[in-house]
Design brief:
The chain is α/β, with parallel strands linked by helices and about 350 residues long. It contains 10 helices and 14 strands. About 40% of the residues lie in helices and about 25% in strands.
Length: about 350
Amino acid sequence: SKVVLLVFLVGLLYFWSFETITKIINKMKTIHWGILGAGRIAEKFAADFSAVGNGKIVAVGSRSLDNAKKFAQKYNIGKWHGSYQDLVQNPEVDIIYIATPHNFHFEQVELSLTNGKHVLCEKPVTVNALQLEKLMHLAKAKNLFFMEAMWTPFLPAVQKVMQWLGEGQIGTVKMIHAEFGYAGNADPKNRLYNPELAGGALLDIGIYPLTMAEMVAQSKIETLQVQSVLSTTGIDETNVLQIKYQNGILAQLRSTFTAQLKNEAIIYGTKGMIVISSFWMSKKAQITNDNGEEIFIDESTTLGYNHEAQHVVEMLQLGKTESDIMPLSRSLQMMRLMDAIRKEMNLKYPFE
């Protein structure tokens, strides 16, 4: 019996050591990134990437080889490709970051997954819920990591707000107000006004107030009221949403391309309030309660894209196929909600 016990303990130690060593190796592994698209968002992501540990951008792909080369040289990226197909077939790349307009996301995520690449895709991850459901099935079948690049939940200022709420520092939350608006280019040829390119305020910027409300309320929706103004091209240039959640929280959310709004989120509770400046990209949060006033300031020099990228690196090192902060179920819930809102607006894109 002593021999059996000894063999058992040696075997246990061996497997424990093997698992431990494997975890250590995985945590040291450098994740190689490819960027699909070389536009404005890709520039911001690449600029922030120097703050990402255990990650390296090794390739960029664009529809123009010249644009890809200029981007690569600017950000010291070793490989550039003049087509997305070439990028996703690059054997050095572990994960693709998709930084193109959302009307292209479905086909580009599908292309990346089909070629065996993990994917981080800019928000909104797709145009509608049906598209996302198809991609979720594909990612699961391929056993690949897939996440929507909704950066807001990863920002230190927003995480501080969630900490305050979790500690009950403003009591029970009763109301949420969030708005994002600016006076933009109303040219019908502009991407944001083009229904063929899935234009409109809701999908482009309205997703941020909705995400903030969902993070804070953490409840199913009981009633939804939608008011919108459609442009001459048929997209929503302004929308106002009023939501009553099942837990009694009320939310008023606004997004527009036609006027400069305050661009802040305010959370009202029974014992205080929280104000988040430029909440979707926030560096500052302020709480006022019975203890007085406290201001949190994120003093990091990056815009904040590095936080979601770092999270993805850690998920891949752990061998996960979904984020525990931005799981696909959360993205699907948001896509279904925006589908319902567009239905109330009578807004359906030509390709749907």
